Amino acid sequence: MRILAIDYGMSRTGIAVSDPTGLIASPYAVIPSRNYEKLLTSVGDVLSAVSPEKVILGLPSRTDGIESEMCQRVKRFREELKSRFGVDAELIDEKYTTVIASQMLHANGTKAKEQRKSIDAAAAAVLLQGYLDAHR
Q1: What pLDDT is stored for residue 115 in this prediction?
Q2: For the chain, which residues make up each domain, given as ranges?
Q3: For the chain: N or C, fewer Cβ within 10 A?
Q4: Per-residue model confidence as pLDDT tens digits over 122-133
Q5: CA distance 85 to 117
Q6: What is the SS3 assignment for 106?
Q7: Tens digits of per-residue pLDDT, 98-118?
Q8: Packing angle between helix 119-134 and helix 97-107, nearest 10 degrees?
Q9: Per CATH, the architecture of 3-134 is what?
């Protein structure tokens, strides 16, 4: 089962996909997010290219349990995915995914300045791998 993960952000949105067996997550793309319409068009293109059977969307929950403005934006983005593309994305807690992705990239020798290009897709892959591992 191919699953697509989206790590929505205000500047960039990371995309990751699983292999067809649903065992391994891989970074797929980083899409600029500042222009919301272009972001949605690009996400639609990715959905068409990948044809996932399931989509998960990272929800940036706060450690104190209070819903942030970003949580509300992610939920609106989820509704837009549903209305435009018929995709009912499952919301998944994404606490610390960017921190974990940064640590992994650093361990692989990627300098902090270079991480900006790939950190969002790597964070989406961390989110997706956690989901895959939990649902085996």
Answers
A1: 56
A2: 3-134
A3: C
A4: 889 989 999 999
A5: 27
A6: helix
A7: 656 666 656 666 565 565 666
A8: 110
A9: 2-Layer Sandwich (3.30)
Which amino acid belongs to residue 42?
S
Model confidence pLDDT, tens digit, residues 34-83: 999 999 999 999 999 999 999 999 998 877 777 789 899 999 999 999 99
CB of 35 closer than 8 Å to CB of 12: no
User: Could you tell me which residues come within 8 angstroms of residue 66 by beta carbon, excluding any fewer than 6 positions away?
Assistant: none
**Rounded distance, CA 76 to CA 101, Å?**
25
Amino acid in position 24: I
Residue with tokens 């992994």: 104
The structure tokens listed for 6 are: 């989206």
* Two structure tokens written together for 53: 């059977």
What three-state secondary structure class fits 104? helix
Show Cβ contacts of residue 83 under 8 Å, excluding neighbours closer than 6 positions: none
> 3-class SS at 17?
strand
